[in-house]
């Protein structure tokens, strides 16, 4: 569920349509309240519902999340109402966890109960191919099988290593592009340049270099992810799904899905014609999925729709998250020049006069790893982890979480909580990770940029390698500065709402070549 509800100012926006639905859903709401009231009376003897802000009739707390960044709004509400809060979004209960203790109970005590995903979300049914993606699949046999495919077939260490030639070529072109901009000495949009690189990386590893449809495919994926952030009335009022047709969202999703289907069919057909000629070490992600589909020996057969869902997921989750992390890391180093100087000094000293940076050199850049950790703490690529579904009513922190409630973990707020990070929690300070006692692989609940528990991201190593290698090249070969006349205090460090919370304003930079490219 995306809480990034950018509501239009038009009277005919989805938000205002929702507000005017009172007449049509009043009876439904009253009946629902009567039923839940009877249930609450008996349940109160066990535990109360979590606290939360006051609700308005019919819309509940929708108005409190409209117009801002939901992860920040929910963090403020948690400071007022507590580490586990309950909101009502239309007809839907939303429980938000914002403390280590709350996350620990959810993950350790009730992990299976909170391991599934909502099945009634508009984009899940449309762009995730009815929940066939790994991220949004219902917890069960299919999900377990496909996650195993990720871990053992698609993104295992051998497969990631096999993409070294692709990464080498993509980074060569990337640094050459930056060097060209350095020669021109004109400011350029750093985030846009990095996004182009991560797109190229993903296209090459998924489809190969000769994919004719890559430009059109990337455009469609961008369009699809934009629609995911749209306000879907039916996500808040599941009994009124027809309203997504009236607002025009469902027809847009259907058109985008139809165009994606057609393009996928072309890409798959093209790849099937040529994949037998591709050497084994260049086995692509699409090849893996096609091979597993054609073998037909899995308990849950991989269909063409399964392949489409997984590939869309890889692009939607793998390109923007990596590019956003690189963008925020450079932004923070531009804001804190002493950090950039320290990172560059470490890299250039470790290289000892070498002009060609290899992936094997990354292990020597310890401070760079601290910079990335601190970037992930302050700017997690998923500030609100994907929604979990409470399968059966249970207790968390002494409160009753009702069955059917959607549950969010506010990673953004956890990463900035002074209770865990000290009075300088809002400051960029990579040195805080020098002890090495806190990591992002799910054991430390105050630091969960890649998720936690059974639903932790299976592509951590793949994405992290891209981020580390890109930043290492940028810091090794180039010196960086802001456009003429701009000071570090002028940098806008606010983010926009959305799946990866990118920068609100583009980072414009100037580059100078410090170490010539090989």
List the helices and strands and how they pair.
Blueprint: H1 14-19, H2 22-43, H3 62-65, H4 70-81, E1 84-89, E2 92-97, H5 100-109, H6 122-126, H7 141-154, H8 157-162, H9 164-184, E3 188-189, H10 190-207, H11 214-228, H12 233-236, H13 243-246, H14 249-274, H15 285-295, H16 304-335, H17 337-351, H18 366-378, E4 388-389, E5 394-396, E6 399-401, E7 406-409, H19 411-415, H20 418-421, H21 460-477, E8 478-481, E9 508-513
Parallel strand pairs: 2-7
Antiparallel strand pairs: 1-2, 3-9, 4-7, 5-6, 8-9
Structure characteristics:
Cytochrome p450, disordered N terminus, alpha+beta, 3-stranded antiparallel sheet
A few lines on this structure:
It contains 21 helices and nine strands. It is an alpha+beta fold and 518 residues long. It has a domain at 129-208 and 284-382 and 417-439 and 452-513: Cytochrome p450.
Proportion of residues in extended strands: 5-15%
- Structural class of the helices, strands and pairings? alpha+beta
Give the overall average pLDDT.
88
- Reading the helices and strands in chain order gives HHHHEEHHHHHEHHHHHHHHHEEEEHHHEE
- Label the CATH architecture of the domain at 129-208 and 284-382 and 417-439 and 452-513: Orthogonal Bundle
Q: Could you please say which CATH topology of the domain at 129-208 and 284-382 and 417-439 and 452-513 applies here? A: Cytochrome p450
Please give the oligomerization state of what you see.
single chain
**Major sheet: size, sense and barrel closure?**
4 strands, mixed
Helical percentage: 40-55%
Shape: globular
Poorly predicted residue ranges = 1-44
The CATH first-level class of the domain at 129-208 and 284-382 and 417-439 and 452-513 comes to Mainly Alpha
Number of strands: 9
């Amino acid at each position: 569920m995306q809480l990034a509800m950018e509501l239009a100012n038009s009277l005919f926006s989805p938000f205002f349509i929702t507000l005017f639905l009172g007449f049509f859903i009043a009876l439904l709401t009253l009946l629902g309240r009567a039923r839940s009231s009877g249930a609450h009376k008996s349940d109160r003897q066990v535990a109360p519902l979590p606290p939360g802000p006051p609700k308005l009739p019919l819309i509940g707390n929708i108005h409190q999340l409209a117009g801002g960044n939901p992860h920040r709004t929910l963090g403020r509400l948690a400071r007022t109402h507590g580490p586990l809060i309950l909101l009502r979004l239309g007809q839907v209960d939303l429980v938000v966890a914002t403390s280590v203790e709350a996350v620990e109970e959810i993950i350790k005590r009730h992990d299976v109960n909170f391991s599934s995903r909502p099945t009634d979300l508009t984009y899940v049914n449309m762009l995730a191919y009815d929940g066939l993606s790994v991220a949004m699949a219902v917890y069960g046999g299919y999900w377990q099988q496909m996650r195993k495919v990720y871990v053992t077939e698609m993104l295992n260490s051998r497969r990631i290593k096999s993409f070294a030639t692709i990464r080498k070529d993509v980074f060569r072109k990337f640094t050459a592009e930056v060097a060209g901009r350095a020669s021109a000495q004109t400011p350029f949009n750093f985030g846009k340049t990095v996004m182009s690189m991560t797109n190229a990386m993903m296209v090459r590893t998924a489809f190969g270099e000769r994919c004719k449809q890559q430009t059109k495919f990337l455009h469609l994926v961008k369009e699809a992810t934009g629609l995911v952030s749209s306000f879907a009335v039916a996500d808040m009022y599941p009994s009124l799904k027809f309203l997504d047709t009236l607002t025009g969202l469902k027809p847009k999703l259907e058109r985008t899905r139809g165009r994606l289907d057609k393009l996928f069919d072309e890409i798959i057909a093209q790849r099937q014609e040529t994949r037998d000629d591709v050497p084994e070490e260049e086995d692509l992600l699409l090849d893996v999925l096609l091979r597993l589909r054609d073998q037909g020996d899995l308990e849950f057969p991989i269909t063409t729709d399964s392949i489409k869902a997984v590939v869309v997921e890889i692009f939607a989750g793998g390109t923007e998250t990596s590019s956003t992390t690189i963008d925020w890391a450079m932004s923070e180093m531009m804001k804190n020049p002493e950090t950039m100087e320290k990172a560059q000094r470490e890299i250039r000293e470790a290289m000892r006069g070498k002009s060609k940076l290899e992936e094997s050199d990354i292990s020597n850049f310890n401070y760079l790893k601290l910079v990335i950790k601190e970037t992930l703490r302050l700017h997690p690529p998923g500030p609100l982890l994907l929604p979990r579904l409470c399968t059966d009513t249970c207790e968390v922190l002494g409160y009753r979480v009702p069955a059917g409630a959607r549950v969010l973990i506010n990673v953004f707020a956890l990463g900035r909580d002074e209770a865990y990070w000290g009075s300088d929690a809002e400051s960029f300070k990579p040195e805080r990770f020098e002890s090495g006692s806190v990591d992002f692989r799910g054991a430390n609940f105050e630091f969960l940029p890649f998720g936690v528990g059974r639903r932790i991201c299976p592509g951590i190593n793949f994405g992290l390698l891209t981020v580390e290698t890109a930043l290492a090249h940028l810091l090794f070969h180039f010196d960086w500065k802001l456009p003429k006349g701009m000071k570090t205090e002028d940098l806008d460090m606010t983010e926009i709402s959305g799946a990866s919370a990118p920068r609100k304003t583009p980072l414009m930079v100037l580059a100078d070549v410090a170490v010539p490219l090989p």
